[in-house]
Automatic annotation (TrEMBL):
GO terms for biological process: double-strand break repair via homologous recombination; meiotic DNA integrity checkpoint signaling; mitotic DNA replication checkpoint signaling; mitotic intra-S DNA damage checkpoint signaling; nucleotide-excision repair; response to radiation; telomere maintenance. The lineage of its organism: Eukaryota, Metazoa, Chordata, Craniata, Vertebrata. It comes from Xenopus laevis (African clawed frog). This is Checkpoint protein. Component of the toroidal 9-1-1 (RAD9-RAD1-HUS1) complex, composed of RAD9A, RAD1 and HUS1. The 9-1-1 complex associates with LIG1, POLB, FEN1, RAD17, HDAC1, RPA1 and RPA2. The 9-1-1 complex associates with the RAD17-RFC complex. HUS1 interacts with POLB, HDAC1, FEN1, PCNA and RAD9B. HUS1 does not interact with RAD17. Interacts with DNAJC7. It is found in: Cytoplasm, Cytosol; Nucleus. InterPro entries: DNA_clamp_sf, HUS1, HUS1/Mec3.
Length: 282
């Protein structure tokens, strides 16, 4: 089992750092799945028990100048590691002026992801700064626990408003309640609502648009059905954590709502996709 990679391009390094920073804001620990073509950062808290789930997929060819890996066996050329993403984020913070960053799997008293930074110096030779990040190797028998989360058939899919705007709205609402209702329809309308015994507050967004994968059958439904709202009541802190931690700068941000069951967010960049699942509360 071997893994080594290298990033030289500054823009690729900065982009990779932003992705890791985003994941750090979303979870304390996660699973890193390495394949020959992709990297996956996975969080699989049981949605049924009120936990969130995350699935972040990166194409390695868009980030790394060099990338080599050998999995545990020929049949399944993959490696699964458990790590604390904040440790990787801290290591990358010192990499902003580096000539290159090497990341490899090592064994130093315990399995580690070793991040070696080549930093410029006044002399002809470069300085190498090394960070050893402890990881746990996940045995093959447990790999099935880290499959991509299945998405139930959603009732509404809608583009999100500017994430910064949405974050500012939710930040104000969090002082009023621990819960928020997200509702949307197939006419490109979305509402964020707080309802308590003392106050009722709502923010309305219009003309957001619906993704093209909304079925033809749905588009042929009556106007009344297109106006029908699907909704989910969720933990406002989990929503704010998602919005506040976002540094991926997506080209598209989408919200899928399974009525009274789940909210599924998708952030799409040309070389990154991040899915985030928040279960609905009764």
């Amino acid at each position: 089992m071997r893994f080594r990679s290298k990033i030289v391009d500054v823009s690729c390094l900065n982009h990779f750092t932003r992705v890791i920073n985003t994941i750090t804001k979303l979870t304390k620990t996660c699973t890193l799945r390495l394949t020959s073509s992709n990297l996956y950062f996975i969080l699989t808290d049981k949605v049924a028990n009120g936990g969130v789930s995350m699935w972040c997929e990166l194409s390695q060819g868009n980030f790394f100048d060099e990338y080599q890996m050998e999995g545990v066996c020929v049949e399944q050329n993959e490696i699964f590691l458990e790590l604390i993403p904040e440790n990787l984020s801290r290591a990358l913070k010192t990499a902003q002026n580096s000539k290159s960053v090497k990341i490899k799997l090592t064994n130093k008293h315990c399995p580690c992801l070793t991040v070696a930074l080549e930093l410029p110096s006044l002399s002809s030779s470069s300085r190498i700064v090394t960070h050893d990040i402890p990881v746990s190797v996940i045995p093959r028998r447990l790999w099935n626990d880290f499959k991509e989360p299945s998405v139930p058939e959603f009732d509404v899919s809608i583009y999100l408003p500017a994430l910064k705007t949405m974050k500012n709205v939710v930040e104000r609402m969090k002082n009023l309640s621990n819960f928020i209702v997200i509702e949307a329809n197939r006419n490109g309308e979305m509402n964020l609502k707080i309802e308590t015994d003392l106050v009722s507050v709502s923010t309305h967004f219009k003309d957001l648009g619906n993704p093209p994968w909304v079925s033809d059958d749905a588009s042929q439904n009556s106007t009344q059905e297109k106006d029908t709202m699907a909704e989910a009541r969720i933990d406002i802190r989990k929503l704010l954590q998602f919005l506040a931690g976002q540094q991926v700068n997506p080209t598209k941000a989408i919200c899928n709502i399974v009525h009274k069951r789940m909210v599924h967010f998708i952030l799409l960049h040309e070389d990154v996709s991040l899915q985030y699942f928040i279960p609905a509360l009764a």
